[in-house]
Amino acid sequence: MNSNTGKNAARSALIIIIFTLGSKVLGFLRETLIAYRFGSGMQTDAFVIALTATSVVTKLISNAISTTFIPILSEIESKEGKEGKISHTNNLLNITGLIGIGLVLLSWVIAPTLVKLFAKGFEEEQFALTVNLVKIGAPMVFFDVISGVIRGYLQSEQRHASNAAVGIPFNIIYILFLLVFGSTFGIEGLMVTTVIATISQFLILLPETIISGFKYKFTFDIKDRYIKKAIYLSLPIFVGVAINDINAIVDKRLASYLVKGSISALNYANKLKSLILSIFISAITTVVYPMLSREVSDENMDGVKKIINYGVDLIFLITIPATVGIVILAEPIVKVAFQKGEFDSLATMMTAQALLFYSISIVISALRSLVTRVYYSLHDTKTPTINSAITVATNIVFNLILMGPMGHAGLALATSISITPSTIWMYYRLRNKIGNLGLKSHLTNGLKISAISLVMGVISYFSYNGFFQLFGPGLIGTAIALGLAVFLSVIAYGTMCYVFNVNVVRDMVNTGTYNLKKLVSERKK
């Protein structure tokens, strides 16, 4: 990975982080308003199940297509140029659009079956409400599917801005509804809003797509060899996503037999856990995936290894302290984020319990995301699928063991446990494919960051409790105490990483210092 590539990657990652951070801030405001308006009970459980049942089909198609399409587009461009790339993209867009329409119609027909599959424990009133919500939300399937193709095209063009920004209009539309119309149109109106927000995600991709030189043309050729290749490579991913969705189905179905609010508590906790993964880790994997595909096309395995090592170091730097912080501050985090209106102290306690056990898997989830992208860039989509199957089997076993004594918290812990052995297995198989990945260096770096993070955790614990005593137990006091504790912890963590020579931090500081000195010297001239 040369210096120019590294700078471009860093610049792209920064753009993604900025847009994603803005999106996530709005997303948390959205979730806070949903919690305030609807609480954590029957209606929100129905909404979560309906949204999951509607999006399960979407993810099967869009994730599989967009993931396999990136390396194929690189191959097309090298052989047929930009025009060929645009032509094949149009063909896939039209084919998937037709599939999307078919899936919308199918969702309307099988809505009751989907709800039974996801939440058999729902009783009559809640079951009927969930079926109705599935039917209302079905049109979003079409827009999600075609957006997946456009996202793949834009990423192959190294254009990440609109991809990262799609969450901003999505969340703004939600927020406007909840503030103005939420009490009037209720949970059904919230699902209609979801459809409108999904359409906005598709629309915001269009300007950058046009700027890139893409022109729509109706082309429909199911015999296209690149389309066939994309479908062939995407089948294992399709199965893998389906297997992961089985995981979600099992978790939510089991949670539907637990106390009311269990599904919502797991959902809110999972969103909080996903904050770190979506803001920072998605930025890393989104940027490195096209780079990995290019290095593989050039048969440069040393380049692939350098990108992997850089990605692993960044993941450790971000996720290890995040895990420690969430474990220590889970309850005040949930309280500040959600405890308002209908979301009471019981809902806070249930969500904090789930968050605590979900957070254990943050590091391994991030590593899994990176390693999976490496396999995809190597055109190996079967190994991640097998990995997903192992994860689901392990999760089901631990769900059944832990949900009895631990309730919904046991389901969260089972998820964290299940992802670990399968990810380790996938990492070792990768070593067999491309050679030594610098495991000793990764372990040394990980242990160093872990030790620093534990010290940071002690600082966060005592600083939060000290500020909590100072500002009081109210929501505002808790928010101030949490904010100050997090600020001090981040400063302490960054300082210790630099003092104890954590390579990634040293490189960042040295690069920033060099650029600043260069800028100052140029202005003096």
The N- and C-terminal alpha carbons lie at a distance of: 32 Å
Radius of gyration: 23 Å
Largest sheet: none
Q: How many beta-strand segments?
A: 0
The secondary structure category is: mainly alpha
| Chain-averaged pLDDT | 80
What is the general shape?
globular
Helix content: over 70%
The DSSP helix count reads: 18
Series of secondary-structure elements, N-terminal to C-terminal = HHHHHHHHHHHHHHHHHH
Which segments are poorly predicted (pLDDT under 50) over 5 or more consecutive residues?
A: none
Strand content: under 5%
Secondary structure topology:
Blueprint lengths: L2 H36 L3 H68 L1 H8 L5 H14 L2 H17 L4 H5 L1 H14 L1 H30 L13 H31 L6 H36 L3 H38 L6 H14 L3 H16 L4 H25 L1 H27 L4 H33 L3 H25 L3 H22 L1
Characterization of this structure:
87% of the residues lie in helices and 0% in strands. By secondary structure, it is mostly helical. It has a domain at 1-257. Helix 2 (42-109) packs across helix 5 and helix 2 (42-109) crosses helix 10 (262-297). The two termini are 32 Å apart. The model has no long low-confidence stretch (mean pLDDT 80).
Keywords, separated by commas or semicolons:
single chain; 525 residues; 0% strand; 18 helices; mainly alpha
What is the gist of this entry?
The chain is mostly helical and 525 residues long. The chain starts with a helix and ends with a helix.
